[in-house]
Every structure is written in C-alpha cells, then in structure tokens.
Amino acid sequence: MRYCLTTAALAAGVAFMTAAAASATDLEVTHWWTSGGEAAAVGELAKAFDATGNHWVDGAIAGSGGTARPIMISRITGGDPMGATQFNHGRQAEELVQAGLMRDLTDIATKEKWTEIVRPKSLLDSCTIDGKIYCVPVNIHSWQWLWLSNEAFEKAGVAVPKDWNEFVAAAPALEKAGIVPLAVGGQPWQASGAFDVLLAAVGGKDTFLKVYQDKDAAFAAGPEIGKVFKAADDARKMSKGTNVQDWNQATNMVITGKAGGQIMGDWAQGEFQVAGKVAGKDYSCLPGLGLNPMIATGGDAFYFPLLKDEAKSKAQEALATTLLDPKTQVAFNLKKGSLPVRGDVDLNAANDCMKKGLDILAKGNVMPWTDQLMSQDTQKQKEDLFSEFFSNQGLTVEDAQKRFADIVSSAD
Amino acid sequence: MSETYPKRPSQLFRNLSAKIASVPMILTAVVVFAGGTAWTVLYSFTNSKLLPRFSFVGLDQYYRLWAAPRWGVAVENLAIYGVLSLIFSLAIGFLLAALLDQKIRFEDTFRTIFLYPFALSFIVTGLVWQWLLNPDFGVQAVVRGLGWESFTFNPLYDASIVIYGILIAALWQGTGLVMCLMLAGLRGIDEDIWKAARVDGIPMWKTYLFIVIPMMRPVFITTIVIIASGIIKVYDLVVAQTSGGPGIASEVPAKYVYDYMFFAQNLGQGFAASTMMLLSVIIVVVPWAYLEFGRARRG
C-alpha cells in the first residue's frame, strides 16, 4: 500500500470511537456536520437508521469539509474504511470510485427506482460513474442567494433592492450610513463562490456552463465574462471593510444590520433562524441575485466504501434506503435548511425563502454547480485568484480576467 | 585481573546490545525519513491527483508551481519573515538575557513571564493576536478609545504589511525561549573573565560584544538552528491568525503544500512544492554543516 505509514497514523487518531450496543449492526458514518442546526439534522438521520434495527455510530469530524475530507480519504485508502461517509456529490470522490474502493449501489437503486424519485435528475447523474451509481444524494444546497438586511436599508433610507443592480445602486447610501454594503468573509471559498454566483446571475446559465463545463478559455477571456468581472469589481469595492474571516461572522453582520447584504448559500438561512429573524420581515432573500432565479444542485451525498463484512454490507443497504425515505427527507432537510432530493414530499413547515427555492426547483430552473463540473485542483486555483482579487484592489479587472482564463484553459 | 588480553573482538560486535537496540531507530530514519523523502521527490515528477499515480510528466509540476502567483507570494513572505524573525528573536532574546543577567531582583519572576508565551501553541498565539490586532476590538480600538481618533494600526487586514503582524506574534511567542537559551549561555561564562575584563577597564558593552558573544558560539548555533527550523515550517501561526489572508497576502510555502495536497487533491503539485522547500533547506544547511563540521575535523 502506497499510503500505509501516514494513513495508519492518521487512522489510529481518528478511529477512536465508543463501543455501542452489541445486538444491532454498528455502522460508522463520518460527516462534517457539526454546527447546531447541522447536528440536529444528523440526529434525524441517526434516529431513522436506528429504527431499522441497526446502530448509527456517529463519526463527526469538526472543521468543515476541507478538514474532514482528507481524513475520510486517508481512512478509505489506508484500509480502515467507515460504513458510510458524506461527500459533496460531484467529483470529490471520483478517484476513490475509480480505484475500486467504493461500493456500487446500482442494484439497490434499480430495485427502489431512484431514477424516478430523485429530482432533479442531475443529482443522480453526479453520483453516476461509468453507468453505475455510487452515492445517495440527501439534500440540495444552492449557492445563488443574496441575503439582505431590511434594517440596514431602512437606516440608510433606501428601499430594499429587488435585484443585484439595485443593490449596487444603493451601495453609496449604505456607505454613507456607516454600513458595509456587502459582507464577504476572508475565507478563500467565499470570494470564489461569490464570483461563481455573479457569473451565473449576470451571465446566465449558458455562460456559466460554457466556462465551467466546456472550459472554453477563449470565451473566458472575452467581453461576456468581462461584464461579470465588472460586477465582481463592484462587489469587491462594496465588500471593503468587512474585516471578518468566517462565513457565519459575515452573515452575522447582515443579521445585526452592520452589513447590507451577503452572497452566500442557503445554509446561511440557519443563522438567521437561530437569531430569531423572520424571512421577509427582518431579512430578504434574492435567489439568483434577483436577476436569474436559478438553483444550483450542489449538495451532500453519502458514499459507501466497499466492505468485506457481510452484516455491515447489509446495514449499508438499510442506510441507503433510509436516507431516501420520504419521512427522513422531510425531517432532515427541515432542520438542515436545505431542499429535499425528492419532489413528492410535503414541506409545509418551510419558510418564505425555502419556499422560493422549492418553487424554482419545481419549475425545473436548475443547473449543475462547480463541485460537479470541476476538479478540486481547479477550484483551489480559482479560490486563490478570487481571494486575492477581493482583498487586493491593486489587481486590475483585466489582469484578473487573464489569470481566470489561464485557469480555465488548464482546468480539468 | 588477567594478564593476557583476549584477541580484540571484531569492531562490528562491539557494544552489540546497543547496536541491536538502535536498529528500530535506524530503520525508522532510513525508511521514513530518507525513503519518504525520496518517494516524495520521485512522485513530484508525476501528475498524481488524489491518489499517487506513477505517470511521469517531467518538470510540469515545477513549471506550474513557479508560475503560480500564490507560490511567489509565499516565497517572498517566507524570506521577509525568516530574515526578520531570525534577527529580531536573536537580538531581543539576547538583550533580555543580558538584562536579566545583571543580578536583578525577581529574576525568576521575569524569566517566567518572558518564557510563558512559549508554553502556548502557535494556534493559541495566532488566535490571541488575531483579536489583539483586530481593528474593531484590539489595539487600534483601545487607542482610539483613549482619544486618538485617527490612530491606525491594522496590519492583519492590510495586504502590504500583514506579514509583519504575523512576525509580531511569532516574536512574542518565541523570544522567551531564545532568552532562556542565551541566559544559560551567559551563566556558562566564567566569572573570572568578567573580572579580568573589569580589571582591564573594558566597558561592559565591549565585553559582551567582543568577548562573551564569541565565547557563546555553540549556544548561538543551537539557537539559530532551532529558530531556522521554526521559520521554514511556519504554518499553524498563519492558519490561526489570518488563514493566509487578506487574499493570499500572508501565504507561506508550508501552507501551499498542505492546501494543494489535501484541499486541491493534487499530490503532484504539493510534492513539487515540498521538494522546493527541502531544496531550500539543503541550500542553507549544507554549506553551514560543511563549514561547521569540516572545520571541527581539521581542528
């Protein structure tokens, strides 16, 4: 084994777990859902799985996906696989599947007709490699939201904007009132994500796909993308003075009215809920920045490493079934603030913003997201570029676009 | 006591038990350090992604590395941080040690206070200084609160000086140890030398500069090695304090290696970067070791 030494050491550190009830089959499930709302959502999954007569052994790894994924991967490659593990479906686990370390779920999928119940279809496509299904999508998280603080706009004496252009126009008034117009935290993925959202909203779906799916470098250097960079330039000017790192601190600026708005995925909604804010009254949300109401179908999925243990393999099947169960889907997604992966469930308890999302989903205005289109390597290069672009006003729009086109040309 | 000496045993079997006992460590050194290093260098010439894959691409990873703006920033930061951190921690550490050496009262208390930050990890240090240097809560806010409204001290959010913000935290954490090492060195100087210098009427600063410091050469070398290894591997401090920001302004090479190996799932690129780090260490260490040990053998 090529990885033996390092992984053995890592695995030894991670494999620590408590003994559980002996009667049921224990299945360790690793994930990186550790914030309050996320933990509650995972609790729902565990409850549903325990009800099948098995036992969910929780393997939460703190520190978000970036920290958790290397640990999960080294456990799988190091010969100490867990029973099931979370990844963002798309290309994160691609090489593990190609190396034959992941379990083929096609049989269960055909038996339970996943292709019919999972909506939109692109979710299952992201789980499919060479015609075989390797993961179970559990939710849809979309990036394309602009969260606005109604209080901040009231203070600045302007109406709450209906789309990105109005927002840009309102920025000087916000600044005059001592409010940072757009909160963008210091973590690199936030800047990169904000640009992708702008690309999809200002440029539209086709432009987005031309760049990230077809990897057309000449197009990425062209005037169409120049417009997007212009918008990104507005965004970086509006984000000056944010002075926070984490995304939830940036969201908090919007919650407390210190910032006018934030471009962030629908997970930000959990923060508003915890703070006791009401959608539509205290804060507004604009899917697709109000320009292009679209929802990207990124999200979370569970993968199942190939196990030798017969009983555990059985338990894996039970878990796969449980995850897509309508009841589990509702209970989990309500707590998580994400959208369910099946269209035939009823989400009455959803709030205004979630309903907007469900509406768009029902209309079929969906598109794939960067996790599904590009390798982590390319995404990291993009993050480096945009975190520099947002913090360094000296980096001109033209230079940044040139570097962006370079990244697109070598993207995979 | 016998009169006849037995035949001299073979050199190989002298201290046999000691040699057997050190076999595991030798194996570890050879397999893990040397073997792992060679493996890393070899795979830096491949296009390994998430899993190591032996498909040779020549120097591609290195071309990409040196074309990446982020790597350039990282190398430049390490150079600034390295030079300044070496100079300042030696200078401040020695100064503190010399002051403590003046037979002052409460020496133990001061020594504890100065050494205390060293008991904190870089992660804690980084977080503490992240708050201290935060413009809305830290030093700047306090001074402004005292009435100097236009006072500006905001290194962590200013790309051009952020590396100095990190340097401040590193010095706060590290000089205590340097001071202790220096103090130990100073205490090792024979009292008679001070007396002789005093009899000859040599001023104190001259005694320090031209007699004591040259005598403390071994202590200085140990200290420099400790500081230098800390400089090359600086990572956690940056992660805790700025996570490389604002933008990529405070990136360091070790962070590039980690990010590309694990976040970007591009082992080849990470290996190429770590090979460059190894190379830079070799360039510094080999001439020094040659001078140091070569001279010892000749002398």
UniProtKB/TrEMBL annotation, chain A:
Pfam families: SBP_bac_1. SUPFAM superfamilies: Periplasmic binding protein-like II (SSF53850). Residues 1-24 form the signal peptide. Keywords: Periplasm, Signal, Sugar transport, Transport. It is found in: Periplasm. One of its GO terms (cellular component) is periplasmic space. The keyword Signal applies. The keyword Signal applies. InterPro entries: Bact_solute-bd_prot1, SBP. Belongs to the bacterial solute-binding protein 1 family. PANTHER family: ARABINOSE-BINDING PROTEIN-RELATED (PTHR43649), BINDING PROTEIN COMPONENT OF ABC SUGAR TRANSPORTER-RELATED (PTHR43649:SF28). Part of a binding-protein-dependent transport system for a sugar. This is Probable sugar-binding periplasmic protein. It comes from Mesorhizobium zhangyense.
